Amino acid sequence: MLQQTTVATVKGYFSKFLNRWPTIKDLASASQDDLMQVWQGLGYYSRARNLHKTAKIITEDYQGIIPNSYAELIKLPGLGPYTAAALASIAFKEPIIAIDTNVNRVLCRLFAISTTSTTQKKQVQDIANQLAHAQHSDTLTQALMDIGSSFCKANTPKCHECFLKSSCLAFSKDIQNILPQKPAKPIRPKRYAHTFVMRYKNQVCIEKRPEKGLLAGLYQFPTSEFSDKPTTACYPASAQWQHIGTVRHIFSHFELELVVWETFIQKKSQGLWTTFNDLNNYGLPTMFRKALTYVKT
Ligand code: SF4
Prior knowledge:
Blueprint: H1 7-20, H2 24-28, H3 32-39, H4 46-61, H5 70-73, H6 81-91, H7 101-110, H8 117-131, H9 137-150, H10 169-173, E1 190-200, E2 203-208, E3 219-220, E4 242-250, E5 255-264, E6 272-275, H11 286-292
Parallel strand pairs: 1-5
Antiparallel strand pairs: 1-2, 2-3, 2-6, 4-5
Helix pairs in contact: 6-9, 7-9
The structure holds iron/sulfur cluster.
């Protein structure tokens, strides 16, 4: 849950999630709709889908017990090298170092690694592999994380207070403030779409998104495909449509401009209809919740 998300945001979701599904087995038997409904607003929905898939695999293939080696953990959906290594090291005492942003920064500075991207990654990994053979690599992983968050901070490293300063190459060369080198930030492309709030009395029409791709399995108001250029609205029903607002929403790899349209129809068309109050029972992604702020209910 904490991936790309702050503790303050996650707190409420975490308790709600654990109250609803206290065990891996409970989570494995949850429906995807229920899962998305509890997760709605937290974003990065693939995390929820991966947790669900992993809970099923652990229940069915591992008799409900989390596998205890990096080699097995890395096979589970949603577990990348960092999470698998952190679990293997800290929970199961495997001799492996988990490299998160803090650990990467500390190692880059301690060993004055000044290369970028792939080469940097490999050099840091090589050093971590050597360190992993030390005794208590779990404590070492946690210590490196703590040094990164308390002394070796990204913008203002507290070198004079740091007990590693006598062996830190970056400090000795006074280059700690420029390490680690960061790759150039890719420009986030813009996409465009229209969403249509079609109302009948106190109800609104929604639809389920496809089971694969962006925001898979979540709900939305009828919405056009996302396009690289602004497009003309193609209304889902012939009626008097009114432009009521425009939502800007940032995804990790693009920015979306979503034009919000509203209409009141006299005769209910086919599709899934719900009251505005009951919308909370559906996993409605944040950008459609933003669209709702333009709707007078
Ligand atoms: S001396 Fe400075 S740069 Fe080196 S590890 Fe400590 S805080 Fe980081």
